[in-house]
Design the sequence.
């Protein structure tokens, strides 16, 4: 496939990357390219300048901040996430979900930063990172800022990362007395999600987040409130999910009607919460 | 300060040989391999990143060459299906494909070989489930998966 003409730069520092992104109208960050190159083929995106982040080694690390947060660089690949001992200790659900994204080849190239910045409503990581209450660090010309997961996703393909800015890392609280779950229905074993749900149970309560039912991840707040103080028995979780589907207005497409997605959202939310509850019990 | 360019002299090691060639920034890696270098063993199947027929090894890891720009591999090491056999001697995996009739039309075979070779390098004796997981990114439109999986499992343990 012949792509539209494009210019290419591969900066060696984050500062240089930010300068390049700000200096050229129509500049776009190129991470793993597992979405961007394809949408360029389809001419659904036509950047004038690609700023390749491949040489920014500081964005490829997984570690812990001084206050114990798990910090994942924007250029960390799904394969790296799936095989990381830090992630396995701090928040294993991230490794587990990363290992189910697409296929081996895509997991070697696709990145955490790309997955969230593309903000495709069917992507795996947006609902999960909202459930985990992650924080996103964005670098711009005037310095760094942090955005909470609830405020990061703004629309289909739209995030809080503005023009001339770059997502540098995602910080996730380590699990302590928490349990995480993720469930949904895919097209094929590890294909695109038709609907999914992520859940996190901690002392402070439960966070339940739905994917594929709206432009951005949706918090199931009514279900969360009904489960406050719950023992998370199966019947209680099912009862709490009642009416969840009716509160949504999901899209219809070739993979499922809006009604089917309403049903799937309820089923996925119940399964994610039950999985989170059983894992929390298992870790106690 | 790095300035954006519309073409770049790409220097890359392919199948053990150093290649240097100027390519436009918009050239996909798979076209660089096939059209610029004549390495036509790497196939274009779907051109949408789904089928895996274009799989090559980038610094030892399997990737789909239709989802990479040629300029992105500047400074890297690549292996294509042409780089598997040495001095006319097929690898154990290639022989196993022949013995198990692991191809029908053969179009997906280069990609299957590259993904399976990467698996065997990491995991010399994979189980059937591990083989299926590793080949998830490779589609055989003849649906000849049974023999492909058998060939990879059988090759396990006999590769270096």
Sequence:
């Amino acid at each position: 496939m012949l792509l539209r003409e494009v210019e290419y730069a591969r900066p060696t520092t984050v500062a240089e990357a930010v300068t390049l992104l700000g200096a050229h109208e129509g500049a776009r960050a190129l991470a793993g390219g597992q979405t961007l190159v394809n949408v360029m083929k389809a001419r659904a995106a036509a950047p004038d300048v690609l700023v390749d982040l491949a040489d920014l080694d500081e964005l490829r690390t997984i570690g812990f901040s001084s206050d114990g947060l798990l910090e994942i660089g924007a250029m960390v690949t799904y394969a790296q996430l799936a095989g990381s001992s830090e992630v396995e200790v701090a928040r294993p659900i991230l490794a587990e979900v990363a290992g189910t994204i697409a296929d081996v080849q895509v997991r070697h190239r696709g990145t955490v930063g790309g997955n969230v910045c593309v903000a495709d409503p069917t992507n795996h990581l947006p609902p999960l990172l909202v459930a985990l209450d992650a924080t996103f660090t964005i670098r711009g010309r005037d310095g760094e800022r942090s955005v909470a997961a609830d405020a990061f996703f703004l629309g289909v393909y739209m995030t809080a990362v503005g023009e001339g800015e770059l997502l540098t890392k995602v910080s996730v609280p380590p699990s302590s007395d928490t349990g995480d779950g993720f469930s949904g229905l895919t097209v094929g074993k590890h294909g695109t999600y038709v609907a999914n749900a992520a859940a996190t149970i901690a002392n402070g309560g439960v966070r339940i987040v739905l994917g594929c039912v709206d432009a951005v991840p949706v918090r199931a707040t009514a279900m969360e409130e009904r489960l406050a103080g719950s023992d998370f028995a199966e019947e209680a979780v099912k009862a709490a999910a009642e009416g969840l589907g009716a509160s949504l207005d999901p899209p219809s497409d070739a993979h499922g009607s809006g009604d089917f997605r309403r049903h799937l959202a309820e089923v996925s939310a119940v399964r994610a919460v039950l999985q989170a509850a059983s894992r929390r019990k298992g870790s106690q | 300060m790095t300035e954006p360019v519309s073409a770049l002299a790409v220097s890359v090691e392919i199948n053990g040989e150093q290649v240097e060639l100027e390519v436009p920034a918009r050239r996909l890696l798979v076209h660089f391999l096939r059209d610029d270098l004549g390495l036509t063993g790497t196939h274009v199947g779907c051109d949408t990143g789904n089928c895996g027929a274009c799989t090559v090894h980038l610094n030892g890891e399997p990737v789909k060459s239709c989802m990479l720009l040629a300029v992105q591999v500047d400074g890297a090491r690549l292996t294509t299906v042409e780089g598997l056999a040495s001095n006319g001697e097929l690898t154990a995996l290639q022989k196993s494909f022949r013995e198990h009739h692991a191809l029908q039309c053969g179009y997906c075979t280069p990609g299957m070989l590259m993904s399976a070779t990467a698996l065997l390098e990491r995991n010399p004796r994979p189980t059937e489930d591990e083989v299926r997981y590793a080949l998830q990114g490779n589609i055989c439109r003849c649906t000849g998966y049974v023999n492909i999986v058998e060939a990879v499992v059988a090759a396990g343990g006999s590769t270096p």
Notes: The first helix of chain A runs from residue 14 to 23.
